[in-house]
Amino acid sequence: MKSRPYGYPISQPNERRSSFDNHIQRRLSALRNQFADGKAYQAMLDSGDALVYEVYENRRPEVAGELLSGLSIVHPGCVGNEYFMTKGHYHSVRETAEIYFCMEGKGVLVMESEAGETAVEEFYPGRVVYVTPRWAHRSINTGGEDLVTFFVYPGHAGHDYATIDATGFRKRVLDHGGVPTIVDNPEWSGVNA
Ligand code: F6R
Ligand code: ZN
After folding, report:
1. Among all ligands shown, which has an atom nearest to the Cα of 156?
2. Nearest residue CA, atom 11 of ligand 1?
3. Is the CB of 20 under 6 A from ligand 1?
4. I need a surface site. Which of 26, 146, 157, 162 has the fewest CB within 10 A?
5. What is the CATH number of the domain that holds 32?
6. How does pLDDT run across 127-159, given as a tens digit for each residue?
7. 166 lies in some domain
8. What residues sit around ligand 2, an ion, with C-beta below 5 angstroms?
């Protein structure tokens, strides 16, 4: 791991492997119970475990003072009429923020707080989204190309996937005749449901 300042290029797809030291691939099977249409999910899974999104990152010590950064790439696709999306998470240390910078594609970042607030911010190339501390976040690709975002967050943040796994998000983004539409999630099952 580097102990001096360093730089790396990230704009070209062929630079991803050399610029990052960790590559995570998340397939449909990792998103069980997250899509509204369970039948469409199972049918898609039966025909092959599609690659939904990938993360490239640079390992740094997971301590306050360090920053973790990388690329999140959500591929285009739908399960039923619900767009491909990330699992989504709170940071384990709730008081930690995150910045996303959209490099390619089109989509949204769906966010919610444990206090019951919700927010949806658009992603398009050149747009930054600031995730304030205590907000869970999930990237959703509403376009026909890869949604590529660069993210940065504090080294000690950690990831709490279990909360979202159990409750889902309060909002879903569905394709209604080609138009991304934000709807309430009737299956949301948190403490205030
Ligand atoms: C890190 C972060 C992103 C996501 C990435 C994949 O805190 O928010 O790097 O990790 O977009 O999403 P998840 O982690 O929800 O599978
Ligand atoms: Zn995060």
Report:
1. 1
2. 72
3. no
4. 162
5. 2.60.120.10
6. 999 999 999 999 999 999 999 999 999 999 999
7. yes
8. 98
Check pocket membership of 86 for ligand 1, CB cut-off 6 A: yes
How much is the mean pLDDT over the chain? 96
Measuring from atom 12 of ligand 1, which residue has the nearest CA? 86
User: Is 191 within a domain?
Assistant: no
> What's the gap in Å between 77 CA and the centre of ligand 2?
22
* Residue 192 located in a structural domain: no
In a domain, 8, yes or no: no
- pTM for this prediction: 0.97
pLDDT digits (tens, 9 = 90+) for 64-78: 999 999 999 999 999
State the distance from the centre of ligand 1 to the C-alpha of 138, rounded, in angstroms. 7
Q: Please count the structural domains in the chain.
A: 1
Burial (0-12, 13-18, 19+ Cβ within 10 Å), 129? buried
d(CA 97, CA 95): 7
Range of the domain at 58: 13-184
Residue 41 has pLDDT above 80, yes or no: yes
Q: Rounded to whole angstroms, how far apart are CA atoms 61 and 47?
A: 40
